[in-house]
Amino acid sequence: IAVQSLENESELAVKKDQQYLWHNITPYSESHPPMIAATANGSWVTDIDGNKFLDGMSGLWCVNVGYGRKELADAAYQQLLTLPYFPLTQSHRPAIALAEKLNEWLGDDYVIFFSNSGSEANEAAFKMARQYQQQIGQHYRHKFIARYRGYHGSSLGALSATGQAQRKYKYEPLTGGFLHVAPPDSYRRPDGLTVETFNLQCAQAIEDTIVWEGAETVAAVIMEPVITGGGVIVPHQVYMDRVQEICRKHGVLLIIDEVICGFGRSGRNFGHHNFGIKPDIVTMAKGLTSAYLPLSATAVRKDIYEVFKDNSDDYGYFRHVNTFGGNPAACALALRNLEILEQEHLVERAEILGQRLAGAFSGLRDHKLVGDVRSFGLVIGIELVADKATKQPADLAVVKGIIAECKSKGLIIGKNGDTVAGFNNVLTFAPPLSSTDEDVQFIIDTFKAVLNGSWAE
Ligand code: PMP
């Protein structure tokens, strides 16, 4: 007690954090001392010293309805009192209601499998894809094709699908059967190619890989509608159309990872709705509960699910269990979260706010560090370069310096890309969909002041 009284609460918390807590993917030097969040409301987080920050990344792109929603706490609380748990080897009301609601949001006929995280939703998708192919007699189909720079999770299978090399170092060997192709990074397309032609070439790389591997060995393609964490890489419409066509032509399932793009982040219910494609499997997490509780889902086309009803060899059903997946309180909270998104028209608002931010930032294209400004709904990426002509990525020290200065002015933004490929140079903005007009103006004013201040020369 004597020692504690000499220190204030935050110093003590930092000490204990250093002693007991292992942080997520952040170099020790950058996460020590950590920002220790204490409370949050709307788009703003307050640390334990009382400093306020606008959370321009919605945590990890997930707090879609913003912080401080009492209705969500109430929904979970009431459900915990009624039925806190029952396994989904059988069923319960909140899971049934949420599965029905997700079908409505997807706008198509899907059956829903619940897990707790984006990684787990993708793991379930991989197992479903392999088993489905087996059960329709396609016994060699076990491979998956994903894109470089894409991210699909941290567990060994989802990490194998991930196309960012630096995340894999020291964890190999990973899971076999995952192949990668280049993403449609139109900003860095070869000279002389139109965006459309370049995108068609990128899609063709998927078909070439399928053909070279032997189509009869490929189970599925997995991709985000837009690569988000890998640097906001937005495909042209022709790319998505062609990918869908290629998958269908070769009997390959198309898994769309909506972990970030889902639940209004893209300005539509789901990211793939922007492209009018119909995935075979859709994975989702983050915005499903706005991250108030863990919950994820793997939505599977009805006719794929039908194949799992065949119990003729006793192994026909999906032999996959997730103890916590579809927890009743998480499902009840998710339902309320979706109601808030609907009642407050937050999907439409994401589109409006995204356009406002992208519009304001496109004026920065003349800045010597700004190579490209990209957006998809309420996801904005600003690619920083050291040289506009060669597009050489900006030094990491510059990227980190800008982020640190924004933070010192009360604005949290993100840094994304792939360190190994030298592209860790994309600043990202993904504030809550519920952000007020003043919040968005604060993001614009603060970021512009930083870039046009000490980083102008
Ligand atoms: N897919 C995508 C596109 C993601 O962005 C993430 C998380 N950032 C995941 C999957 C994995 O989600 P989780 O961290 O919940 O396992």
TrEMBL record:
CDD domains: OAT_like (cd00610). It comes from Paenibacillus borealis. This is Aspartate aminotransferase family protein. InterPro entries: Aminotrans_3, Aminotrans_3_PPA_site, PyrdxlP-dep_Trfase, PyrdxlP-dep_Trfase_major, PyrdxlP-dep_Trfase_small. Gene3D superfamilies: Aspartate Aminotransferase, domain 1 (3.90.1150.10), Type I PLP-dependent aspartate aminotransferase-like (Major domain) (3.40.640.10). Keywords: Aminotransferase, Pyridoxal phosphate, Transferase. PANTHER family: AMINOTRANSFERASE, AMINOTRANSFERASE CLASS-III. Belongs to the class-III pyridoxal-phosphate-dependent aminotransferase family.
